[in-house]
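Reply to dn_fold:

You asked what the input looked like. This is it:
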Amino acid sequence: MEPTVLLDADRIERTVRRLGAEIAADHPDGVVLVGVLKGALCLVADLARRIPAVAVEVDFISISRFAPDSGRVKILHDVGIDLGGRDVVIVEDIVDTGLTLAYLLGQLGARGPRSLSTCALLDRPGRRIVPQEVRYRGFELEDEFVVGYGLHVNDLYRNLPFVVAGSRDDVAAAPDCYVSAVYGRGAAARRAGGRVAGGRTEVP
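and this is what came back:
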């Protein structure tokens, strides 16, 4: 299966600008963005620059994968900022089952923030196991495999300025199978004019 451009760089930029405006409007006293490593790195960097009207602090958290035998996770890198009494937005690249987000909300919520909400570029509500609200949502996806703009396979494709859809089976067999197809396609993606393929919808 050939990877196809799902969200081009221009569409992503416009959406991040919208998300930044929404966050700024809701948090006039300032906000702490907590990015979930490593997937949210691109989004956090762009989002912080799209909130120029209020004070923004940025920190990061990283957790392990869910253990298949116990379902447990552990924090690998913790937030260093005191979140007590602060307005905090967790920034994710994608929210899928909701399990990771539920864990993070529990962990950070226990630290006494004034408010705690979530921002995600991509949301797949059809795969939810734990109901979770994404307050600041970029795009809603169906059950498709995507890489780019922070999303990865074996740490490949994170630096793409656009998001492409591909085959889970293809990348499981060979994680680098899309490298030759997607690198060097930046110009073609930018020319796509904000195309969102195959029924994917941007949240207004």
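Strands lie at 4-7, 31-36, 56-63, 75-77, 87-95, 115-123, 136-140, 145-147, 163-166, 201-202.
Hope that clears it up.
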